[in-house]
Amino acid sequence: MTGQTLVKVGMADLNVVDGGALLKTTGLGSCVGVTLYDSKSGIAGMAHVMLPSSDIAREAQINLAKYADTAIPELLNRMTVLGANMNRVQAKMAGGAQMFAFAGQSDTLRIGPRNVESCMSMLNRLRIPIVSHDTGGNYGRTIEFDSGSGILMIRSVQFGIKEI
Amino acid sequence: MAEFKNFEAFELDVLKEVGNIGAGNAATALSKLLNKPVDMAVPKVSLLPFEEIAELVGGAEQVVLGVFLRVEGEAPGNMFFLIEENSAERMLNQLLSLRHDEGDKGYSEMELSALCEIGNILAGSYLSSLADFTQLPMMPSVPAIAHDMAGAILSYGLMQYGEMGDSALLIETTFLEDHQSLEGHFFLIPDPGSFGKIFRSLGVGRE
């Protein structure tokens, strides 16, 4: 495990790596961590998606990594530039929790499940198979993707470490 | 987002005073609850990139107990009261003689409910003093508590900002009792549209 390069992905951020490097994003709550992976070329990408759709964006310059509908195509783009084959890319995802439960939930509070739905429909539209996911619940997650093995490691306070 | 970058120094000072008054009353409430003097640090008012917000409490992965309340009324926003695990245990001990087993990472429903209520009392006194000061009605929602990573908890309060940019304006105040033996953080994250109302109500509006 030692000697592997670790690339951090911030909130509303995305990054791509190859050559066995690790991708990591911390403290996913209602945000969703989407990873795309082409196992043959070893090229992997991770996005920390914060909001379901860029339709609601009111910022002058859209941060593509922030929205499910823009982050996934951008991630795929960056990976194909590096040499990934679009047809081989597979997805894994984690996050999209509902951190606090209230009665009579407004849509803003259901942001986690909406992020998950939106990521899934974007992946379907791009015909990227979702091989596994660990989403929902009411707890935060930190995830790490190993571009050597294709394993997504998920850590949470209550359930410890899990690999998918 | 442009409007935030234009905040003048005196406006940030006004927000600092908002934090001072609110947290000052909350600190008094906490001091009464614990029957001990509670100190507080000078509030910090900053426009921070999302990534750096959790750094204020020790990083996105720092495990904390977080009480969340939605502020409703004229100047809506999100409010968090975050306490580190050690402080939470001490608080439970001092206040309710609820003993938390060493090494046991979980919290019982009773313990979580007690901490949630502490957060509720403190947030209530923060908001009611703020409402008095600004003459704007502000009501806290029912509180909710989570025992989780700070990043996961705080990101919940940033969604309204996500639509506008990659940073949020927040008012943070730290409580200390006996020099750090008990530490809590208050975060008030007014909705982007609430600042104008707060400023106008205090007579420093520009529009």
What does this structure look like?
The complex is a heterodimer of chains A (164) and B (207). In chain A, 18% of the residues lie in helices and 34% in strands. Chain A has helices spanning 68-82, 111-125, and strands at residues 6-8, 14-17, 22-28, 32-38, 43-49, 90-95, 130-135, 141-146, 152-156, 160-163. Chain A has a five-stranded mixed β-sheet with strand order 1-3-8-9-10, with no helix packed on it. In chain A, strands 2-5-4-6-7 form a five-stranded mixed β-sheet, with helices on one face. The radius of gyration of chain A is 15 Å and the shape is globular. With 207 residues, chain B is of the alpha+beta class. Chain B has a single domain, classed as Chemotaxis protein chec (3-Layer(aba) Sandwich), CATH 3.40.1550. Helices cover 43% and strands 27% of the residues of chain B. Chain B is built from eight helices and eight strands; from the N terminus they run ααββαββααββααββα. Chain B is globular and about 55 Å long. The chains are: A alpha+beta (164), B alpha+beta (207). Chain B: Keywords: Chemotaxis, Hydrolase. Chain B: This is Chemotaxis protein CheY.
Largest beta sheet: strand ordering of chain A? 1-3-8-9-10
What is the name of the CATH topology of chain A?
60s Ribosomal Protein L30, Chain: A
Q: Give the SSE string of chain A.
A: EEEEEHEHEEEE
CATH architecture of chain B: 3-Layer(aba) Sandwich
Based on CA inertia axes, which overall geometry of chain B fits? globular
The overall pLDDT average of chain B reads: 82
- CATH class category label of chain A: Alpha Beta
- CATH topology of chain B: the name is Chemotaxis protein chec
Low-confidence runs of at least 5 consecutive residues of chain B: none
The number of distinct helices of chain B, counting runs of at least 4 residues, comes to 8
Which structural class best describes the helix and strand composition of chain A?
Answer: alpha+beta
Quaternary form: heterodimer
Radius of gyration of chain A, in angstroms, nearest whole number: 15 Å
Number of domains of chain A: 1
Q: Tell me roughly what share of residues is in helical segments of chain A.
A: 10-25%
Biggest interface: A-B, 35 and 34 residues
Based on DSSP secondary structure assignment, what is the total number of beta strands of chain A? Answer: 10
Organism (chain B): Paenibacillus agaridevorans
Domain CheC-like protein (chain B): 10-46, 110-145
GO molecular function (chain B): hydrolase activity
Pfam families (chain B): CheC
